[in-house]
Specification:
alpha/beta; Rossmann fold; 5-stranded parallel sheet; 51% helix; globular
């Protein structure tokens, strides 16, 4: 395991899992949100984002946390391991609520209120985004693919590599 992507619905705990995996493996960790967003909630240009991502992808080892469908296939094609946090909607919505008001190393700002458009994206994840993820997982089935159905499964995995 040298090149890893961690994907899943927002609120599933991708960043938390990624930080724990980084701590256990020492593999450098990169958060897509930190490559894409500014502290004032504006995004960098597409070119800047791609330049930043390509710089990370050129490294010998990485854990990349985040979805960003526009670059998911590229990252999946270059990784050796995929962790997919495939959790129920209620878990993800709860995860979003729990992180409000808390500083996070994976975001350049503190979320303080509900973003209805973002919550709708989460509510539609299983019907809109998940099928595309599943197609990519089938296409790249030669990768080491680990699908967790609960936070307990992810915690057990981390405990087993300690």
């Amino acid at each position: 395991m040298k090149k890893v992507i961690v994907i899943g619905c927002p609120g599933s705990g991708k960043s938390t899992f990624s930080r724990a995996l980084h701590k256990e493996t020492g593999i450098p960790l990169y958060h897509l949100d930190m490559l894409k967003w500014n502290a004032d909630k504006t995004t960098v240009s597409k070119e800047v984002f791609h330049d930043r991502l390509n710089l990370v992808l050129s490294e010998n080892e990485w854990i990349i946390d985040g979805n960003y469908a526009s670059t998911m296939e590229l990252r999946m094609s270059l990784c050796d391991t995929v962790f997919f946090l495939d959790y129920p909607l209620e878990v993800c919505l709860s995860g979003i609520k729990e992180r409000q008001g808390k500083p996070r190393p994976d975001m350049p700002w503190i979320e303080t209120e509900d973003d209805e458009e973002f919550l709708e994206f989460i509510r539609s994840y299983n019907t809109q985004s998940r099928p595309k993820v599943m197609e990519l997982l089938k296409k790249y089935k030669e990768k080491n693919i680990v699908i967790f159905k609960s936070r307990e499964e992810a915690d057990e995995y981390l405990n087993n590599i300690r």
